[in-house]
Amino acid sequence: MFSIQIMRLTTEILISTNIHIFFFFQETKIVEAIFLDATESRHINLSPKTFEKMPNLRLLAFRDHKGIKSVSLPSGLDSLPKNLRYFLWDGYPWKSLPPTFCSEMLVEVSLRDSHVEKLWNVELVCTVHVFIITIFFLF
Amino acid sequence: MGGIGKTALAAALFQRVSFKYEGSCFLENVREVSNRHGINFICNKLLSKLLREDLDIESAKVIPSMIMRRLKCMKSFIVLDDVHTSELLQNLIGVGNGWLGAGSIVIVTTRDKHVLVSGGIDKIHQVKEMNSRNSLQLFSLNAFDKVLPTEGYVELSKRAIDYAKGNPLALKVLGSFLCCKSEIEWNCALAKLKEIPNAEIDRIMRWSYNELDDKEKNIFLDIACFFKGLERDRMTKILNQCGFFADIGIRNLLDKALIRVDFKNCIQMHDLIQEMGKQVVHEESLKNPEQRSRLWDPKEVYDVLKNNRVRKRYPDFPS
Predict the structure, then answer these.
(1) Cβ–Cβ < 8 Å for B277, B292
(2) Which of A119, B16, B146, B288 is paired with A88 by a 20 to 30 Å CA distance?
(3) From A84, which residue of chain B is nearest by alpha-carbon distance?
(4) Could you say which of B210, B237, B263 is where a domain stops?
């Protein structure tokens, strides 16, 4: 919910400041696994819809080193692929995961140094085998 | 030369003697890690391990004198695996290991002898190829599960080990590849090997890979591009959930010597085999990373995550 509110807010700001850009997305059906080991030199801002067109993504890992954040989500995240089995995101920046995210397939979740306060409802969490979560900051 | 056993030898020595030293550190894949995270990262890792505390030094070139003093006072045992430049070596251990205390030992493995010569290393040991007797034993252990070839396969085995040229990795993979195959298949494989004189190891590994079924191929590629080093049981659960029947798949990859299980029960893969796996994925589409099944190169990951966003139009501003 939080991310959706932020999204709306961002959209409103965009409209009010007359910067109005629409993005469309290409399908990237082939990609099944993404592994990113943070490097000092690069940084990327992900769009909320980044994973919408990656339906076959099974394994996703964004790994940080010494707190170097290589991936940011300035406008939140709308969705995560429903086929995800392994999900690692060091320093995941929002308080919750996308509300539409279904964890049925997930086996392992690792959210070190994250800001996550709430995952999903309890029964979904039970299906996940390994949970590694350290909360970075709590309001 | 890759696969000859440099790292294995250094690791065996480290395991045997490092406990006798006040500080010890085994840095694996220095070349890869330094390319990815920079020299400071490696330097901090080394010093943190030796001094047993979490250090965060900003520049490898300026090491605080307090730390230098502590290093100088202790006997250390260090292995730097796969170092590719002498500058890197000097940044890590000082010119002529001047930073380390008396009685310290540094073992450096590299594919380039110049690194050692210009890095001021005193003793250089060139890891030799296995002799023919040991080659036959290692090969037989993988091909027949015993130290000598089965009757009727002695000549064929000798022909096979000629191609491996005393390289233990090649011997293992080739032996495992030929394991349980008929005499006709052996002859056919060896005739094929004869035609490709200079790419033996890579070609042998490819054969092993090509023989896997689709699910095993997926497991192999997931390990090469994503999971190398993960604990076996955890990996099995994830890959089972992917529908790859991982219990039997991983067993088969072990039988083919494409992966191994280390003492921590983690799945490991030799660099050369991993390289071959990544190459297989690379060949799915030479030019377009977004057309590949797995992405690991930071630059390509950034490009794909960026470029799947296509800016189509700028609509009129609302009035």
Answers:
(1) no
(2) B288
(3) B242
(4) B210
pLDDT 10s digits, B200-210: 677 788 888 99
ipTM of the complex: 0.72
Domain boundary among B118, B146, B174: B118
Q: Give CA angle at B140 (B193, B177), nearest 5°.
A: 45
Per-residue pLDDT at B316 exceeds 60: no
> Do B16 and B78 have their domain in common?
yes
When mean pLDDT is compared over A10-14, B5-9, B191-195, the highest value belongs to: B5-9
Look at residue A134 and tell me whether its pLDDT is greater than 50: yes
Cβ-defined contact of A28 to B36 (cutoff 8 Å): no
* Partners of residue B217 in chain A, C-beta under 8 Å: none
pLDDT mean over A42-63: 88
Residue A33: DSSP 8-state:
E
If asked whether residues B114 and B10 sit together in one domain, one would say yes
What pLDDT is recorded for position A12? Answer: 39
For residues A101 and A79, the answer to whether their CB atoms sit within 8 Å is yes
Q: Strands B105-108 and B294-295: what pairing?
A: unpaired
Residues B201, B220 share a domain = no
What pLDDT, on the 0 to 100 scale, is given for residue B307?
A: 66
**Torsion, CA B101, CA B53, CA A89, CA A130, rounded to 10:** 110
Q: Is the pLDDT of residue A18 over 50?
A: no
- Same-domain pairing of B243 and B227: yes
Based on the fold, state whether residues B98 and B147 are members of the same structural domain.
no
Domain count, chain B: 3
pLDDT at B282: 94
- Residues of chain A contacting B234 with CB distance shorter than 8 Å: 108, 129-130
Rounded Cα distance between B85 and A21, Å, is 48
Q: Domain of residue B218: give its range.
A: 214-304
Query: Tell me, what amino acid is at B44?
Result: N
List all residues 6 or more positions away from B188 whose beta carbon is below 8 Å from its beta carbon.
Answer: none
Summarize pLDDT for B89-143 with one digit per residue, the tens: 888 877 656 788 889 999 999 988 888 888 778 788 988 889 999 999 999 999 9
Same domain assignment for residues B220 and B198: no
Of A21, A58, A65, which has the smallest distance from its Cβ to B311's Cβ? A21
Q: Which strands make up the sheet holding B105-108, listed edge to edge? A: B23-27, B76-80, B105-108
User: Half-sphere exposure (CA, 13 Å, Cβ side) for A72?
Assistant: 9
Q: What is the gyration radius of the CA atoms in chain A, in angstroms?
A: 15
pTM attached to this predicted model: 0.75
Within an 8 Å CB–CB cutoff, is residue A18 touching chain B? yes
